[in-house]
């Protein structure tokens, strides 16, 4: 009998004894691929690493307005809403140096000016969570998943938003700007998250709205979920080969294996 060759055309997927069974049929032979679940909590992953801006919180309007006010105050040419939004996800100074040509001194001035204006603009209620985000995070936490954040935003700002959204008890591990040597799209944040929590690459999945999140995940050997409702474009997420692309945060439940809980 000739040896069976690799086969990857599943025709049936079903739960079975703490694992998923994928059954394919080829030339009368059944090929079974078993994907073991996380036996401790019956989920497909142990941890979910979330971006914040454009993934958890709808910060686009606040950020774009503050960027445009910064450009006006510094005396630089204006940029459109979409041009500004395309920079979201990068470290703050790089947001401006990538937006238009400028020297390092001007980039530093833009960073400082942005921070000052942001403190004025960021009033209570200025940022809302996207639909289904808070409930899904709580469900993932209750299912035993370690929910974490990896963001280019500074920690103090992140914690203030999480406090306002009443998510602090459900997100016990947070990395922000300055917590690693290299920011997104470098893999540092994901690698630190894995190392600090005793996780392997296959234990985690990254969720974000921009190509910077997908590149960060893949550089660390971690699978990625791209969300289309934030600041990125579906075609860009597809080009970066995100393993999943979703239009609603609640779709994440099926990906991590808590859809029926």
Helix-strand blueprint:
Layout: E1 12-16, E2 19-26, E3 29-36, E4 47-50, E5 57-58, H1 60-74, H2 81-85, H3 92-99, H4 104-121, E6 128-129, H5 133-142, E7 146-150, H6 155-164, E8 173-175, H7 188-196, E9 204-208, H8 211-219, E10 223-227, H9 234-239, E11 244-246, H10 252-256
Parallel strand pairs: 4-7, 4-9, 7-8, 9-10, 10-11
Antiparallel strand pairs: 1-2, 2-3, 5-6
Helix pairs in contact: 1-4, 3-4
What would the keywords be for this entry?
261 residues, alpha/beta, six-stranded parallel sheet, three-stranded antiparallel sheet, 10 helices, globular, disordered N terminus
Short synopsis of the structure:
By secondary structure, the chain is α/β, with parallel strands linked by helices. It has helices at 60-74, 81-85, 92-99, 104-121, 133-142, 155-164, 188-196, 211-219, 234-239, 252-256; strands at 12-16, 19-26, 29-36, 47-50, 57-58, 128-129, 146-150, 173-175, 204-208, 223-227, 244-246.
Written overview of the protein:
- With 261 residues, this protein is an alpha/beta fold.
- It is 36% helix and 19% strand.
- The chain contains 10 helices and 11 strands.
- The chain has helices at residues 60-74, 81-85, 92-99, 104-121, 133-142, 155-164, 188-196, 211-219, 234-239, 252-256, and strands at 12-16, 19-26, 29-36, 47-50, 57-58, 128-129, 146-150, 173-175, 204-208, 223-227, 244-246.
- The strands form 3 sheets. Strands 8-7-4-9-10-11 form a 6-stranded parallel beta sheet, with helices on both faces. A 3-stranded antiparallel beta sheet has the order 1-2-3, with no helix packed on it.
- Strand 2 and strand 3 form a beta hairpin.
- Helix 1 (60-74) packs across helix 4 and helix 3 (92-99) crosses helix 4.
- The N and C termini lie far apart (44 Å).
- Mean pLDDT is 87; it is low at 1-37.
